[in-house]
Design a protein that fits this description.
The complex is a heterotrimer of chains A (about 525), B (about 500) and C (about 170). Chain A is of the alpha/beta class and about 525 residues long. Chain A starts with 12 loop residues before the first helix and ends in a 15-residue tail after the last helix. Chain B is of the alpha+beta class and about 500 residues long. In chain B, a hairpin with a 2-residue loop joins strand 11 and strand 12. In chain B, helix 5 runs antiparallel to helix 6, helix 8 crosses helix 9 and helix 13 packs antiparallel against helix 14. The longest helix of chain B has 19 residues. Chain B is globular. Chain C has two domains: about 80 residues, Glycoprotein, Type 4 Pilin (2-Layer Sandwich); about 70 residues, OB fold (Dihydrolipoamide Acetyltransferase, E2P) (Beta Barrel). The chains are: A alpha/beta (about 525), B alpha+beta (about 500), C mainly beta (about 170). At the B-C interface, helix 13, helix 14, helix 18 and helix 19 of B face strand 1, strand 2, strand 3, strand 4 and strand 5 of C.
Chain lengths: ~525, ~500, ~170
Amino acid sequence: MSRLQSSINTASADFRRNEAHNRRLVAEFKAKQEAARHARPQRDLDRLARQQKMPQRKRIEMLLDPGTPFLELSSLAANMAYGGESPSASSIVGIGMVSGREVMIRADDPTVKGGAWYPLTVKKIVRALDIAMENRLPVVHLCDSAGGFLQLQSELFPDRYMGGRIFRNQSMLSKMGVKQLALVFGHCTAGGAYIPGLSDYSVIVRGTGAVFLGGPPLVKAATGEDVTVEELGGAEMHTSVSGTCDYPADSEEHAIEIGRDIVSQWDRLPRWEAQREAPEEPFYDPAEIYGIVPDDIKKAFDMREIIARIVDGSRFHEYKPNYGTTLVCGFANIWGFKVGILANNGVLFNDSSIKGAHFIELCNQNNTPLVFLQNITGYMVGREYERRGITKDGAKMIMAQSCSRVPKFTVMCNGSFGAGNYGMCGRAFDGRFLFSWPNHQIGVMGGDQAANTLAEVKANQMKRNGGTVDQRAIDQLWEETRKAYQEQLSAYHSTSELWDDGIIDPLDTRNALGVAISASLNAPLGPPGYGVFRF
Amino acid sequence: MMTAPDDNPPFRKVLIANRGEIACRVIRTLREMGIASVAIHHPVEARARHVREADQAVEISGETPVAAHLDIAQIVDAARAAGADAIHPGYGFLSENARFARAVAEAGLSFIGPDADTIALMGDKISARQFAVDHGVPVAPSVMPTEDLAEFTRQATAIGFPLLIKAAAGGGGKGMSIVRSAEELEGAARLAASEAQRYFGDGRVYAELFVERPRHIEVQVFGDGKGGAIHLFERECSVQRRFQKIIEEAPAANLPAGLRDEICASAVRLAAAANYRNAGTVEYILGADGRFFFLEMNTRLQVEHPVTEMITGLDLVRLQIEIAAGRDLPFAQDAVTANGHAIECRICAEDPERDFLPETGTILHLDAPQAAFLRFENALDRGQRVTADFDPMLAKLVAHGPDRAGATRRSIAALHDLSLLGVKTNIDYLARVLGHPAFAAAELHTGFVVQHKAALAAAEPDEATRDKVLIAAALGLRDFRDLILGVPEPHASIGRWRN
Amino acid sequence: MVLKLDLDGTVHHVTILARRPHLVLSVDGRRHVVENLDEAGDGSRNLTVDGEPVAFARAGSADGAIIRLNGRSFALRRLDAAAEASAAGGGANVVRAPMPGTVVVVHKRVGDKVQRGETVVTIESMKLQMKLDAPRDGEIAEIAAREGEGFDKDAVLARLAAPAEG
């Protein structure tokens, strides 16, 4: 496999301008992340200290094997919801190594409203458990939650993918033989009580840990019974009387030690042995990605330059290099794992769509995971392309991609517009993981196009109705449409709504994919075969 | 080293009434001589080295293991039942017990040691001392043993100070004290009397002039039981803790030739006068002024006999056996020559940082250096429990060198390379003693360990050493190792990373 | 996860910083590159630490390890969270009957200081005598057990004083 030849001039004005722009975007992202992780009202931090409880992130660090990665998912979930009241959607989710086993770690955040679950908290937990199911990752729950945020119960309780889904997923995981461990550091109230209840193993910390369907105030209101937390659902009671929890722990550190010991008992389910070589750092400096991605989403760039800064040794075996050139396809290795990469170098034409569909089939035939690097404005439109069957060729690509049996990973590198999002494994297509760069924008179309389209429709309407076109009204509509779109298009909006598994610094792409691909190998390949391709 | 068995061994079968390293030591010579060996053991030591190495083993019982090893009737019966024609008592246990020697003889067996009467004579400090006086062997001015404390005090004051007070029947430092003034005397005497009564059932106390900074010099003798006796030179055993030897060497350093001859000659004179048979050791204290005084005679093989063996090239156990069988001394005094210097270190399960208190544990790892100039006398096994049942001495490390400095260097190097893990020992302490300038300068006396206490204390390890120790320990913990090796790729290669 | 080792009364922290390309350990915050990882288990071993060869002997003990290095032996004790928590007054407060039975001996009195694992009461149940131990270090606050008296399953036989607030 030969090394890609970069043609980037790092001394150019374009490069430096792009670099400054992207570094600013990443700095903004990191600042938001830092605030979501650590900015808390002092009284909440004081309360935690008074209870002699460690912050969740410290517990997670203690739980993880030292000197190993932790891929945090959706660190900015809910960042644009609830007026910013629920940083990271009041929970921490990520994949890491515990006692030599890859596990999904899911932790409540007791520093936000006592760890209460907001609707997006529930969505984040359900997604975490979906990931655990899809990739057969054991789950360690770090429980410390007051239960559902009652003011928003209608948005988190009744529907298919709301609260109950957590417990359904927990049950399914257990049935699949994927282990779950609950470490109960604080309260597990109401629905939250079922997390340890449905975990295969549970540890509870004396003094601070408690599990009950209704806390003392609810019990008092319901039955008039006066009861202490300890009597109602403390460690002593649950480990020696009710059997709801298995192991009492004498301190938080002790609970983590017991937890690590429990995980070390777990069998290692057979992994799917993907094609692997010894890993090699990229030949080109990944930091140059900042100078390559343009400062304007409308400017084009060669995705091979990005590939060269993500894959092992910057080596890339390009498939059909002279055909359908707006879709770059080829084989490479990421942290040693063989992958098939599809990356956009422009709008998808008939030939690039067919090439993409064919390459996806090759990867499925070769048991090679797929990595989609999206920068897509859509499939080509126009009479000529419709006559050539752009829709049926795009459908071929969607069919091949949807029915893939190999794991799929998507990175939103820049724009993701229109049906191109579908062909390139957008969120709806059950890729194992989807990450976004901070510059990423997503929508049916771009803000300008949407404003143009709506203005065009409005003008036609005016012409039909009165004959005259109020250009000022049209301009206002255009501006409003564009502004609203622009906000919704942003990566922060996407990630707030959990349309992805988190924004990542472009420089972290290689590691994020490495951990993600490794996690995906825990699940067997899906069933082979496709639907009917339209020829 | 393999030696062909003797054509005409003096005994067919010998029972060793002992255990541990000395039993193994005796078995080695018996095997070389073509004599079958019988070990004895209490049930708790059924799998001990001496039991495995002997040709035959007999179980003896007792409330405690030590009690079993002190049970004369049982051991004599065991020897008879096993068909042994002699018993080697080793050191300690019954080795200086006249009743045992007599019982062995009465059972028609040979006792590899002196006759019962000699043991009795030398076993009583008073009679031994009188015997020495009678035969021109110098003794320290002393008060004869008495239970009359007033008379004792009067005589003691007449000798002058300092005085050493001890139990007349005692040994091992029990009831011993040094009195430096008349004021202290009465109290010390009373204490010695009560301890003597308590430990030995004999309340008589005894006092003698105390020699300041005395050296402990002893002479290895052999007698044929018919008035013939020779010496195998002297040993110095001045380095002691709690009145017990920890480092012994041969020859004694810086001993003027005339003085050495004088001391050795007096020892031979004593042995000859007693018609001494077999191996014995005459112990002296030697003052800085060159005056030496008879201390006692040990009527057995000494713990430290290997240093004599290493400088003379003789096998003392073989000599013992041959003499016990009635043979003559195989050579004359002038045929005995000494070559180089030898040092023995007693490896004990004890904590030098806590006043040498005995330690217990389990031998987890044993790796001893090997060289032609080294002897590591032991009966240790991996997994063996070190309990308070027996003496805390675990092994002896003996090194020979062309001169004293060479033997010291070799001893230090060997101690450095000796790994005996699982119970706290004095190995590192011994190395510090040997490395002390005062040891190199042979400024030795029985208070050496106390005098240099501060300098001999373990230093804090430096940070680099401590870190290495912590790393080595961490890598030995199974789960920490799993933590290193059990992390799969690519996580191991990615390392610590947070996004 | 950080390993805590006690050496001569001082607690040291050992953890892993990296595994590739070399093993890098942190000892009390100091970085050390470890190469030529030795064989597991007890015996004479060799390692390379920061480029220097290190020869040592090792034996694992019940609660740690003994290391002999540069002619000196060091005994190390591993600290686990349970022991630390117990020493800090964490852990259960009660001695509870695992089955119905009668009290044979009450070993401790109210006010007695106890260490984790010390026997507080001996009970007899189903013709079997059983020792019930203190669940943590602490002071006996209450003894409910009376010698010769019977009790039911889960009965609290003794209680430890709650750790002082600090």
